[in-house]
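Before the break, one more example. Copy the sequence into your notebook; we will annotate it together after we see the structure.
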Amino acid sequence: MSNVLLPVPFVENPDDRCVPAVMGMVLAYFMPERHFSMQELESLCGYIKGQGTWKALSMLNMARLGLQTHWIEDFDHEQFIADPKAYLRTILDDEAYEWQVRHSNLELEAARMKEYIGKGLPLEQRQSTADDIRHFLRDGWLVHLEVNAMALYDKPGYDGHSILVIGFDEDGVVIHNPDGGHGNRPSQHVSWEQLDRAWKEFGGSYSLYAFRRD
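Here is what the structure looks like once it is written out:
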C-alpha cells in the first residue's frame, strides 16, 4: 500500500465551527490564491450557531467555486426531500430526531439537497469505505468525514464532528482535526480501526464528502 500525505494548510476552529474550518482547509489547498475569512466560510456552509450544519449547501457552493465534488452516504435523499420529518423519524432515535427538528430548517435542507441532485452532481447512496478514502486521496482529492469526536480520543460519550483526511498509511489515516472543544489537532494520526468506530458512530451512514480542483 503506497502512502499518501497531502500538504494541506490547517485552519483552527475557535469553538463549534468545525465544518467551516474543514471547508477553509479544502479551499486553502485548492485555491491558495484566495483568502476566505471565517465569516465567509460560515456563509458558504450555512453555519448558524447552535444549529445543525447540513452539507448540501457546502457541496453546492464548492461546486460553484469550480471544485469537483463527490458525495457518498447511506441516506435516502429522495425520501428526505419528499418528507424530511417523516424520513428522519424512520432512521433516528427519539433524542436525535427531536434535536434535528429543533435545530435544523429541514424544509430548507431538503430544497438544497434537491438542488444538488438536480444539477447532476455526484451522489451515491451507500456506506462509504476505507477503500473509498484511499482511492480519493491517491487521485488528489481531499476527504471530509463526519464522526463522533469522542471516539477519536477513546473517551465515552458523543460529540458530532467534522474532520478532513489528508493522508493515509498502512496503519491508519492522517487527519486535520479542527476540534474547538478538545483542542485543534493538525496532522493527527488515527488507526483505521479507531476511524471506523468514530465514523460509524455518526449515525451509521458513513458519510463522505470529497473535493478536487478541476
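The radius of gyration is 16 Å. The longest helix spans residues 18-30. Try to locate both features in your own notes.
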